[in-house]
Write a structure and sequence with these properties.
The chain has helices spanning 17-68, 73-125, 131-140, 142-154, 156-182, 184-192, 197-239, 244-257, 262-266, 268-275, 279-304, 313-327, 329-349, 359-362, 366-385. The protein is an all-alpha fold. The protein is extended and about 95 Å long. The termini are far apart.
Amino acid sequence: MAADNPDPPQRTAMPAWLPRAMVLALALLGLFELANWAAHQLIGIAIMMTVAFFVSLAMEPAVDGLAGHGVNRGLATGVVFVIVFACAAGFVATLGVLLVETVSHVVSELPRLVDELVNWVNRVFHQNFTLDQLRDRLFKDSDIISSYAERAANNVWGLSSTVLGGLAQFVTIALFSVYMTADGPKLRRSVCSLLPPAKQGAVLHAWDLAIDKTGGYLYSRALLAVISAIAHGAFLALLGLPNALALGIWFGVVASFVPTIGTYIAGVLPILVALTIRPLDAVWILLFVVVYQWVQDYVLQPRITARTVDVNPAVALLSVIMGGALLGAVGALLAIPATATLQAFLGEYVKRYEVSEDPRIERKGGAHKQRKLDEAAAKDAEESED
């Protein structure tokens, strides 16, 4: 009798849904890669539109003021932007003149300064250095200098492309800022038309907060810049430094729009100029910078920003650092207005509670006494329980 042959194994058929699932997965992956590529290509445009939006928010209070006096909104927008561009161009021109004249003055005075420095080192440390030794050392390292110059020459084309690209971005931001400001009412009406009536009020309220805080920040900083420019310009003129007015403008802009440390950064340039003329004046400038920074932080700024925008200096510096880390110089520029807007928005919707008086809050000598009272009360409670 023949042996029973086992049945051959049957192949399992592919589920009918698997090919469709594979095609769908590949299609979704392709769409994701396409969206990722498009996002990377458009992120620069998104940043420029964000900057243009914040610029339009800052300009809108002035445009609204002129429009409220009967000026055509388009004409009012043009007048405001012409004034802003003129101020920016004046600052850039002033900065260029300062840099050129400062560098030329430092270069002309450099041999005398080096000679005085070498004489001071020899006198204080009992050495016998000469300028010839320094010159030989410099020429010995000339390979490093020449290689650096060669790399810089090779990057000239890249630098030119960067400058042209930055100019194109500036023009794009300026144009969209003008359009957004001139058509601000139409833009708000278009946005609200996409929302149900119950949501339109909240959006318009948030928009008003952004306008108030961004515009308030710009105008309060502009006023602080004018005060700082007058104060520093007058002090530098009193010391007899050249280009005192231009240095005062440099001081005013940098000290006012760079939070917390702007005054110290601005002080580097006039201190450098003073060192090439009368080194003792550099000490007086440093003292004046420190005193003025204190006056600005604790006297001027609280009064000027009380009705516009007030951001804690530490929070302002942190927001600038974070904005710079995320978006570079653009993020650092927009950080404080965005922080002020968020702070105001949260202040209206985050519930706060009244804080009872307690010496431990102020820490003015009463905390130790309060701790003793708490310990005595706890001890009495334990004795009463016993």
